[in-house]
Inverse folding.
């Protein structure tokens, strides 16, 4: 499944000092399915029969998400961040995928954050 999406999140800073920052993030995402490609391989004796089907995806996939994060500032504009998050994908009559089978998804983002002012 191939999707293209536009996320929109708002961030609220809960606590901030010269070295640490704690924040909440929440928002949603709208995704449009571009193409669904299905490949099936059948192994019969010494032969492989491959069937490929490609279709368009109707409608949109909506989701909401929330996160709480913390940043440790190494320098004024460089920090290490850690952000556990949760997302929920609504049932929007999309093709069967991990999002339709398990609509609640937990994630973890971590890395280096550069802040430009």
């Amino acid at each position: 499944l191939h999707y293209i999406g536009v996320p929109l999140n708002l961030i609220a800073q809960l606590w901030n000092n010269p070295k640490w920052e704690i924040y909440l993030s929440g928002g949603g995402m709208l995704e449009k399915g571009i193409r669904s490609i299905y490949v099936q391989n059948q192994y019969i004796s010494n032969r492989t029969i491959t069937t490929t089907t490609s279709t368009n995806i109707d409608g949109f996939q909506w989701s909401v998400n929330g996160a709480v994060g913390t940043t440790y500032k190494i320098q004024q504009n460089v920090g290490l961040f850690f952000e556990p998050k949760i997302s929920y994908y609504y049932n929007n009559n999309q093709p069967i995928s991990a999002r339709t089978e398990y609509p609640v998804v937990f994630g973890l983002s971590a890395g280096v954050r550069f802040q430009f002012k």
